[in-house]
From TrEMBL, chain A:
Belongs to the ERD2 family. It comes from the Eukaryota. This is ER lumen protein-retaining receptor. The lineage of its organism: Eukaryota, Viridiplantae, Streptophyta, Embryophyta, Tracheophyta. Keywords: Endoplasmic reticulum, ER-Golgi transport, Membrane, Protein transport, Receptor, Transmembrane, Transmembrane helix, Transport. One of its GO terms (molecular function) is ER retention sequence binding. One of its GO terms (cellular component) is endoplasmic reticulum membrane. It comes from Dorcoceras hygrometricum.
Length: 215, 10
């Protein structure tokens, strides 16, 4: 464990807690893409399969439970909660996310570290995580300005993966033959997807206005 | 056992 990875995990944790807090306190999910939340639930379900079989550390198990629990409860809130669901903007959140699930799955069948169920699902979860934010970014473009909590959520989500890239660089130089192209390329693509959002996010911080995304 | 170290990441 190194500082970059710990910072990345805590940033990731903060992003889901910010989102849960927002939905739980103001009982609204305005501006949040259910599709992205469903994709994240799939990412965690397919990546944390080994939760019950291999024990790595208390930290690892605890974090996996928190991520699984929070992502599924966010999906439940938006789909089922009688008040929250009313604020879900389903005719704006129209990204056909099955069109990214299938290609990711096909890609995982082609490119993986080993052709076993666990490895293929693990690669699938990495590819899917890289593009899971797309419905949310599309929704932000459509609804133009977004409230601060959603902005913070997306920012923290992007920052976590950027910190992970620093972690991979650190591990590459400190651990012999630590080479994992699948993880590295997926993580890089994921972070690049956030790049333009980061640009507008910092712009809005500078001129202290609401976050205005260009049409 | 190949402790695939990348798998200990979240």
């Amino acid at each position: 464990m190194n500082i970059f990875r710990l910072a990345g995990d805590l940033t990731h944790l903060a992003s889901v807690l910010v989102l849960l807090l927002k939905i739980h306190t103001i009982k609204s999910c305005a501006g949040i893409s259910l599709k992205t939340q469903e994709l994240y639930a799939i990412v965690f379900a397919t990546r944390y399969l080994d939760l019950f079989t291999t024990y790595i550390s208390l930290y690892n198990t605890l974090m996996k439970l928190i991520f699984l629990g929070s992502s599924f409860s966010i999906v439940w809130y938006i789909r089922k909660h009688k008040i929250v669901r009313r604020s879900y903007d389903k005719d704006q959140d129209t990204f056909r996310h099955y069109f990214i699930v299938l290609p990711c799955f096909v890609l995982a069948l082609i490119i993986h570290e080993k052709f076993t169920v666990r490895e293929v699902l693990w690669a699938f979860s990495l590819y899917l995580e890289a593009v899971a934010i797309l419905p949310q970014l599309v929704l932000l473009q459509r609804t133009r300005n977004i409230d601060n909590l959603t902005g913070q959520y997306v920012f923290l989500l992007g920052a976590y993966r950027a910190l992970y890239i620093l972690n991979w660089i650190y591990r590459y130089f400190t651990e012999p033959h630590f080479v994992h192209w699948i993880t590295w390329i997926s993580g890089l693509v994921q972070t690049l997807l956030y790049a333009d959002f980061f640009y507008y996010y910092f712009q809005s911080m500078k001129n202290n206005g609401k976050l205005q995304l260009p049409a | 056992v190949d402790t695939d170290s990348i798998k200990d990441e979240l």
